[in-house]
């Protein structure tokens, strides 16, 4: 049962019949993104507060309303996560209780505040229902999220937890902000709203339209670190003004901790709690000094000794984390030789060592604890110094190491007076220390560690550049090169710290295809509308500055050539490589795609069809999607060189009217309806601003149509003016300037290291500077060497690109000249047609000769004997003087065993089982009508019917006489193959001889299996005889027997390669006993 402590609803909300979900707000429980159970959900949490916290140990200890508990049961929330055990009891205490939750995504942090929020909304609605007059105005709860996708997720989850009475049609449980001004939205606000979910930009837009919040009780900032700082600050100031003097509860969730979050929480609530599911973030909050030391492997022990001299183990409890037991042994030898007492905890430690560790926790007595990440039984919580002799195998294990500092972290909420708190600053010697030692063989986690440090403190530029190079090396090893970030292409910046897409231009982004115009105007053909500023088009014509319209050449038969691949045997791509152009098989045919990202491949020698691959379409549209390697095939070389037919067009300088960074899906559909409703004939026209290899940036997009009365081309629609007029978008010069700055940035600047003269000579402003001074020279030399190698590689790549471009220009010129000559010469075309006709006639004559020879060679023996007897009779006649005139060859030449011109033999693959004869008939087209019959229990007749759509299509037919008895026939068609199964009269192998029928091909794999089964039965029979004593010793075959069970001579004999051999059963007389 759920409710050991269950609340009740005074308005009969316990009855399910009196409650209902809001219309069009039904929640799909099957698609709910539940929290992870392993990756991000830690069993440990660090919670600090200015009051005593009592975490719940089970779900039954938390009080929720019955309908909320029912929704939890449908979500299968039967396990209480560690974050929720602290958050639910604290937030359920009501007004004045706020919290800052710092944890990774999908760790249960959203449910930590959604359920208390819905509890507050339900209780407030119950309170208003009990009053004589309904006076609710505005929302009861407000949730600010980062983007529109998150708006849909949180609003659906809140709608699943809330209920209303059936007679409360005016009440809106969950309300989202539309993309434009609508009277219905503000009418719902006046009638009362349970929870409003919006982005900070949307909330500021609503506040600009005289928003009032008299009944606001709960506010949540979801992913506050991903929001724009200026927008969040303005939204927070608006809430302070609108909620004075009664403050609502405030919950702030974030992936990283910042002191500004705690100051915002203090302005709303007095009973505060800081909850960490990320132990590394908790260590930074608690005053831990995190440092990086780049050392050679031989010098790491000396660095450990230096730190121990500065922080003696007698006064600072020290834990040293290693990657393996071998690292522990290596470090113990050095420390013992310098007089330090060590307590190594190997993975094979026994109970005696475990008891020693417990005594060390009570009193360290100057001993150093050395352990690895594979010792979860150690529960060290009050260490002062944490030395990472080597990094962990994963980032999560590295963060979990800092749990050893949890009990010594500084509680910033314990001091009641802020001045008293700021005055009690710890000295550098007394602060907690976490030192990371990196060498040349253990630095793969450096990029992620540098990203974390950059959010909390300044990092040396050399360390940042080295981390960037390590990240590029790791990406190259993965054979991945992600696509450009969509936010960078729209706004010129990306605020998502967890974004995995590329934020820098590379050299191939600047290389334009031969037919890509760089300036002027272009005519476009619309393919697809993604957003109001992002379109997929095809380039039709180009108008250079001061010139005339010129048609852009493209391969119009490219799509037809791709569809013709269905009749060929395409080879799968293995291994898939980044930037490789291949063919993707979709539901309607084939299309070209370019590989963007490939999952790691463990073994290249084993071909896989389930490997996840991210690709981008090139011709149908420019969508990006994820597929498997089994649907990717090798693209022919002549199609790989063809430029893409589809390209992206983006309008610069437009942002959503409400100020958020994502467009509503309805806005894109609205733009598409505008473009499709323009009078025909018309075309799209745009002026080029900047060009990349895959994207054209323009200022505006216009629809131009021809007015026959005026005999002029008139612009009937401009997208920018229409969006501004309908208040769907607004101009933003700041976004335009950032985008142009991003596009004009040199791609080589982000890759080269600075010269030695450009480096600052003063001491770097970083807390790790003291650890780098001893070996700064080695690091500088390494950085300079990497910079030189990088510049040489870029110069070489640039020269290769220029040479290849020159060769392409020469080849393009030659092809154009040849094409012009061929087009201008009509005589050459006539000669070509005549030659093709002559070659076809010669080929028909050769086929007729081969057919005659095949008829003679494949004629049965009985027919040959009859012909021989006929020849002898003709020779015996009187007056037969010219013998050669009546020879066998002359008679055979007169036999015309030819097929009609519209009849073709299909390819048939056959094999037999114990009970059936199986035929596989390959046809050129799928869904082709056909007939198949069993005639006179031994003849199989097959023929296709000519469809009415293609009256000239040949008929595929054959007649096979098996000379064996069959019962019935079954058939089915799958794709282009017809499967025929003929049931035998006797369940024995039939002696089939199809060597006369050249179109009949045996299925060697199936025949091999049948032969193996026959040998297995013979071997089983011999074993049965031996076991029952019928054979006193092993069985030997006759010495003079030429019929060998495993004879390879017959298999190699070409005379019998075309027929299936069925061996007869052996009698007992064929065996001799010894």
UniProtKB/TrEMBL annotation:
Domain DEAD/DEAH-box helicase: 83-252
Matching Pfam families: DEAD
Keywords assigned by UniProt, alphabetized: ATP-binding, Helicase, Hydrolase, Nucleotide-binding, Repeat
GO biological process, one term: germ-line stem cell division
EC number: 3.6.4.13
TM region positions: none
Signal peptide: none
Substrates-to-products reaction catalysed: ATP + H2O = ADP + phosphate + H(+)
Gene3D superfamilies: P-loop containing nucleotide triphosphate hydrolases
Top-level lineage group: Eukaryota
Region Disordered: start-end pairs: 1040-1061
GO molecular function, one term: nucleic acid binding
InterPro entries: DEAD/DEAH_box_helicase_dom, P-loop_NTPase
Parts forming coiled coils: none
Protein's UniProt name: RNA helicase
UniProt organism field: Drosophila navojoa (Fruit fly)
């Amino acid at each position: 049962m759920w409710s050991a402590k269950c609340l009740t609803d005074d308005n009969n909300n316990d009855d399910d019949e009196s409650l209902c979900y809001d219309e069009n707000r039904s929640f799909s429980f099957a698609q709910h993104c539940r929290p992870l159970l392993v990756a991000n959900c830690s069993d440990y949490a660090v919670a600090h507060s200015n009051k005593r916290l009592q975490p719940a140990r089970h779900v039954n200890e938390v009080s929720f309303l019955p309908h909320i508990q029912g929704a939890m049961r449908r979500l299968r929330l039967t396990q209480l996560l560690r974050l929720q055990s602290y958050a639910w009891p604290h937030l359920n205490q009501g007004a004045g209780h706020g919290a800052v939750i710092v944890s990774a995504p999908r760790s249960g942090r959203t449910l930590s505040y959604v359920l208390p929020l819905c509890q507050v909304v339900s209780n407030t609605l119950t309170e208003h229902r009990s009053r004589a007059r309904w006076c609710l105005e505005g929302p009861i709860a407000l949730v600010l999220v980062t983007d529109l996708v998150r708006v849909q997720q949180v609003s659906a989850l809140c709608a699943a937890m809330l209920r209303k009475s059936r007679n409360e049609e005016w009440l809106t449980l969950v309300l989202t902000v539309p993309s434009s001004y609508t009277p219905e939205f503000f009418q719902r606000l006046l009638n009362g709203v349970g929870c409003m979910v919006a982005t900070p930009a949307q909330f500021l837009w609503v506040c600009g339209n005289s928003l009032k919040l008299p009944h606001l009780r709960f506010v949540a900032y979801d992913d506050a670190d991903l929001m724009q700082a200026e927008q969040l600050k303005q939204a927070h100031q608006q809430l302070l003004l609108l909620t004075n003097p009664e403050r609502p509860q405030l919950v702030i969730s974030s992936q990283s901790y910042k002191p500004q979050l705690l100051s915002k929480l203090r302005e709303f609530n007095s009973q505060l709690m800081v909850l960490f599911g990320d132990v590394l973030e908790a260590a930074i909050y608690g005053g831990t000094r995190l440092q990086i030391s780049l050392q050679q492997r031989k010098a790491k022990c000396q660095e450990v000794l230096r730190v121990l001299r500065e922080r003696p183990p007698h006064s600072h409890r020290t834990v040293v984390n290693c990657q393996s037991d071998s690292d522990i042994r290596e470090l113990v030898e050095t420390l013992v030789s310098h007089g330090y007492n060590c307590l190594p905890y190997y993975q094979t430690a026994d109970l005696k060592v475990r008891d020693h560790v417990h005594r060390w926790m009570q009193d360290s007595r100057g001993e150093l604890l050395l352990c690895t990440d594979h010792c979860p039984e150690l529960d060290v919580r009050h260490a002062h110094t944490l030395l990472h002799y080597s990094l962990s195998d994963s980032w999560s294990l590295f963060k979990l190491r800092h749990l050893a500092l949890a009990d010594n972290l500084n509680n910033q909420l314990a001091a009641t007076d802020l001045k008293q708190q700021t005055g009690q600053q710890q000295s550098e010697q007394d602060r907690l220390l976490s030192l990371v030692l990196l060498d040349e063989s253990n630095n793969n986690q450096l990029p992620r560690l540098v990203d974390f440090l950059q959010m909390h403190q300044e990092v040396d530029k050399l360390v940042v550049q080295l981390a960037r190079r390590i990240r590029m090396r790791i990406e190259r090893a993965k054979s991945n090169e992600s696509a450009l970030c969509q936010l960078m292409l729209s706004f010129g910046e990306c605020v998502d710290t967890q974004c995995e897409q590329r934020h820098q231009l590379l050299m191939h982004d600047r290389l334009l295809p031969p037919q890509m115009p760089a300036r002027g105007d272009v005519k476009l053909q619309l393919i697809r509308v993604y957003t109001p500023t992002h379109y997929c088009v095809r380039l039709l014509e180009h108008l250079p500055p001061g010139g005339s319209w010129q048609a852009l050449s493209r391969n119009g038969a490219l799509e037809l050539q791709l569809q013709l691949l269905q009749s060929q045997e395409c080879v799968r791509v293995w291994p898939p490589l980044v930037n490789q152009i291949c063919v993707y098989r979709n539901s309607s045919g084939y299309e070209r795609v370019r590989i963007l990202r490939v999952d790691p491949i463990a073994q290249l020698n084993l071909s896989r069809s389930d490997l996840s691959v991210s690709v981008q379409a090139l011709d149908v549209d420019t969508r990006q999607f994820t597929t498997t390697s089994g649907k990717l095939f090798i693209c022919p070389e002549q199609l790989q060189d063809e430029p893409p037919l589809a390209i992206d067009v983006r309008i610069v300088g437009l942002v959503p009217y409400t100020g958020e960074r994502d467009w509503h899906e309805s806005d894109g559909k609205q733009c598409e309806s505008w473009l499709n409703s323009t009078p025909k004939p018309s075309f799209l026209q745009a002026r080029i601003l900047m060009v990349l290899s895959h994207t054209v940036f323009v200022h505006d997009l216009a629809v131009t149509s021809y007015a026959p009365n005026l005999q002029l081309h008139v612009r009937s629609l401009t997208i920018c003016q229409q969006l501004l007029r309908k208040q769907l978008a607004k101009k933003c010069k700041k976004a335009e300037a950032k985008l142009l700055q991003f596009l004009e940035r040199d791609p080589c600047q982000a890759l080269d290291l600075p010269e030695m003269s450009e480096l600052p000579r003063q001491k770097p402003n970083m807390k790790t500077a003291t650890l780098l001074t001893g070996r700064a020279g080695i690091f500088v030399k390494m950085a300079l060497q990497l910079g030189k190698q990088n510049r040489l590689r870029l110069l070489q790549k640039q020269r290769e690109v220029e040479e290849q471009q020159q060769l392409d220009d020469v080849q393009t010129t030659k092809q154009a000249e040849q094409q012009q000559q061929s087009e201008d010469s009509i005589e050459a075309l006539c000669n070509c047609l005549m030659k093709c006709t002559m070659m076809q006639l010669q080929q028909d004559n050769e086929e007729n000769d081969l057919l005659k020879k095949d008829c003679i060679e494949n004629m049965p023996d009985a027919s040959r004997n009859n012909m021989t007897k006929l020849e002898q009779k003709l020779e015996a006649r009187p007056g037969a003087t010219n013998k050669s005139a009546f020879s066998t060859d002359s008679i055979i030449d007169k036999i015309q065993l030819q097929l009609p011109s519209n009849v073709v033999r299909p390819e048939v693959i056959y094999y037999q089982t114990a009970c059936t004869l199986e035929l596989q008939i390959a046809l050129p087209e799928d869904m082709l009508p056909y007939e198949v019959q069993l005639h006179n229990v031994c003849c199989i007749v097959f023929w296709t019917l000519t469809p009415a759509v293609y009256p000239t299509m040949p008929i595929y037919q054959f007649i096979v006489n098996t000379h064996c008895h069959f019962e019935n026939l079954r058939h089915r068609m799958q794709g282009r193959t017809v499967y025929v199964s003929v049931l035998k009269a006797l369940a024995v192998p039939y002696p089939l001889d199809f060597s006369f029928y050249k179109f009949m091909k045996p299925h060697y794999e199936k025949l091999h299996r049948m032969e193996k089964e026959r040998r297995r039965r013979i071997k089983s029979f011999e074993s049965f005889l031996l076991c029952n004593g019928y054979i006193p010793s092993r069985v030997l075959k006759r010495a003079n027997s030429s019929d060998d069970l495993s004879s390879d001579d017959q298999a190699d004999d070409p005379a019998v390669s075309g027929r299936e051999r069925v061996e007869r059963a052996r009698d007992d007389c064929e065996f001799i006993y010894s």
